[in-house]
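Let's practice the habit of predicting before peeking. Look at the sequence and jot down your guess about where helices and strands might fall. Then scroll down.
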Amino acid sequence: MSSVSPPSPERSRFRFFAPILAGATWRDRLVACAGALVCVGATGLICGLLLGNDPHLPLLVAPMGASALLLFAIPSSPLAQPWPIVGGNTVSALIGLLVSRYVPEPAVAAGCAVALAIAAMSLLRCLHPPGGAAALTAALGGPAVATYGLGFAFVPVGLNALVLTLLGIAFHRFSSHSYPHRAQAPANAHGTKDPPSAQRVGFIEADIDAALNDVGEAFDIDREDLDRLLRRVELHALARKRDLPRCADIMSRDLVRVDQHDDIATARRLLLDHAIRTLPVIDRENRVLGTVGLRELAHPGLRVRDVMSPAVIARPNEPAVDLIAALTDGRHHAVIVVDDEERLVGLVSQSDLLAMLLRPLRREAA
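Done guessing? Here is the structure:
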């Protein structure tokens, strides 16, 4: 029976320097800093150009700093998406302004503004933590805010939020994060009502809902992202417990392949003569450029390179169990194994993977 060793003294001593967010890296933190530096500054400049030189109207309101933290540090958070940033700040500021009109006591007005802002953002599906600060800013802003009336919620608060969000979308086009964030839920490639293959085994959506109800807490993660994360945990746990082989252990090495300049008829003949479903497409240096099957050959084109699809690739030393996701998505029948220079060294088909997974069961039955 294996046991988990306690953390080393050095690790405990420096635990406060470990990332608070699961999965965060130093690169992510540097990207977040760069995004805030560029986009918050640009938001102030753009709003200054649009609003003119009114000395009583701030170019930037304080909640934008907190919005920028979410937008650039955790762009996958449901609280950091465009509608929460724009809607949450604007709606909360509007509520703060309305409360300040009817509740003269500042302390009471502050509590009412934040409480009502949370309720409104929840109902409008734009919950955004900086919205609480926007509500306070509007409720306690005094004469400088009151001068602009309810319009303060739209200019500068709403304008700031909109400009910052648009700049964030543009910035993340060049970062490693997708924004607005969309969870990569497994797709049904065949257009039928059956769930994807990967979701027919293991836990189901109802299990996730039941677990969330058991815990009784709200988590800052999209439900589809949680599903994808848990399925990856399953694969890594399987690889650890089963001690399954690497890609190099199960891959085919004597491969039928096709050159990118070959014509469509050559590729079709190779597929049919060898009774295979996927051909690696290579260049003259044996580097993998893509794959082609009968589905691709149905598309118009003269040469293989005109119709090939991007290849799903793996390295020889990767755990073979990591290929389960790609080979059960309904779109791919093989994973191409390449070396560090992207040269073709092998291929793992669905049959190879199935044979590997059945091996432990055969040993147990023997």
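How did you do? The radius of gyration is 27 Å.
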